[in-house]
């Protein structure tokens, strides 16, 4: 089995250079120049919206609950027929947010990015409100509020720190690049490598995401919530009994991946990015439902919308708003970890289409052990693409330490023999493009 995976990985490399020829070169940079101008506009827009939204957003959970049935007009067209009601089997100790963690919209220097769950945790102060976090803070906050398994948060933090953060301090930005993640000197300093945060494209952030546009299709804005994508999610939920359940989210992946294939000449779906994106769909009902999904939990608009950062207005327009935990919401009672992600991935992949990718074939096979080991192999063997320097001793020691600390349990879970194989590498996204993005400012729009 080991040999099989290795030869597939070698094949993977060969296929990737033909499937993604642009990965090698610095092309397509022109589109990003515009971004520098847009950045200033976005900051203004955000400051303006901050005031307006402060008042609006608190109503998201309760408004939707009150008006979800029997409403008429534009709002009714959107929400009538969607599932309502409270969860069953909930336990008071799983209720959030608590009084010490009130919602507060982010300020202009606070980082928010591609992950609605982390944005929500920061908006409630379960993570530092400035959005500059350590791996340990993320692992404990995601466990406390979402009951995410530590193996899964460890893996996600490994990706975030290795590809977008500071290896020395295990700190990263949950949005874009930020001076506050850098160390003054050494491996974590800016002169050694740039730390582009969670928004770093094709590292932590990938194409075909549930509510973010593809990087190339939105002038390099790979991290702002898109009301139109949410509107399509509402329509899919209606077709599916009114529920925001796994089949609904998988259908959304089907639509989004199709859009990427049709419109995005730079669509990239491979490696850890593909796994993160596949995971991003089913985890919405798994983590955002009120109560335990599959055991009395309810994946209703009332919970999904505020946690994903959307508000529906009476006139039927939908606005992106800062993510919020609805009042009186209950987290899942049982942990959800890597084994769950791996078990869900084939179903999500089957609903969509991706470019030819050997990893896709392995996921499609449904062999969970092989998927898990492949993922471990990919993560533990890929050199940190943010490092513009060869793997010098100090860096590889830090990486090995991080790997043991954050990914250590994976080989046992999936029965992988041997440690990650450093002879296997994947092509990295062209880093010269990263710095041209708009920074971590979420652009909150309505549509
Ligand atoms: C969650 O479910 C509980 C128990 O049924 C209910 O009391 C509460 O209002 C629900 N909260 C939300 C935000 O839907
Ligand atoms: C890593 O790959 C090389 C080349 O295929 C192989 O000889 C070696 O045994 C592998 N090591 C592990 C730990 O799997
Ligand atoms: C994605 O967004 C981040 C944050 O704005 C930015 O730093 C990055 O350059 C963007 N694009 C790419 C290709 O990563």
Automatic annotation (TrEMBL):
A Gene Ontology molecular function term of the record: metal ion binding
Keyword Lipid metabolism carried by entry: no
Span of domain Heme haloperoxidase family profile: 99-343
* Required co-factors: heme b
Q: Does the keyword Magnesium apply?
A: no
Residues in the signal sequence:
1-19
Kindly state which keywords UniProt assigns to this record, in alphabetical order.
Heme, Iron, Metal-binding, Oxidoreductase, Peroxidase, Signal
Write the protein's name: Heme haloperoxidase family profile domain-containing protein
* UniProt xrefs under InterPro entries: Chloroperoxidase, Chloroperoxidase-like_sf
Region Disordered, annotated ranges: 201-224
- Family, per entry: Belongs to the chloroperoxidase family.
Species of provenance: Rhodotorula mucilaginosa
